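Re: shikimate-3-phosphate structure - here you go.
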Amino acid sequence: MRIFLIGFMGCGKTHWGKLLSQKLQIPFFDLDAVIEEQEGKSITEIFAENGEEHFRLLEKDVLYMLTESHDNFVMACGGGAPCFFNNIDYMKKKGATVWINCSPDCLYSRLVKEKEKRPLIKNIPDEELKAFIIKKYADRKIFYQQAAIILSDEEISLDTLIEKTFHT
Ligand code: S3P
């Protein structure tokens, strides 16, 4: 089974993805980490040197490459991955899609401490970050909410993830 974890930066996709993959004993892929490894550069460097458009093409290529070559995995997808091209439709066709939905307030409290490694927010002053998250979250919700399974940050646990993924 392929499980795609989607949601805004900071919602916990990598954290939950690792735990879920360990529990199910299937591989875990962090889409950003695979892109970094393939390119030999950090996501921040790719954005700075090649631009976001190039990153989005790489993201799509790596998503397809990993998906076509593996039948079983948990994948933590970057926050923008389901929002470009028709990636969300592709993910839905290929496996179980899970949106970890975290409120903008909660995202802000996490992201304000972790801006550096995220090119989209790195240069946004702290006092403008909340407004940026609210706007971007609103723009992206239309993609995230297409996930087959939606779990709020408050209700998420390993048990709920497994229960919903296998019984939806
Ligand atoms: C992005 C989210 C990041 C990473 C890139 C762009 C986005 O991943 O893919 O910086 O557009 O939301 P995380 O969601 O893992 O931070």
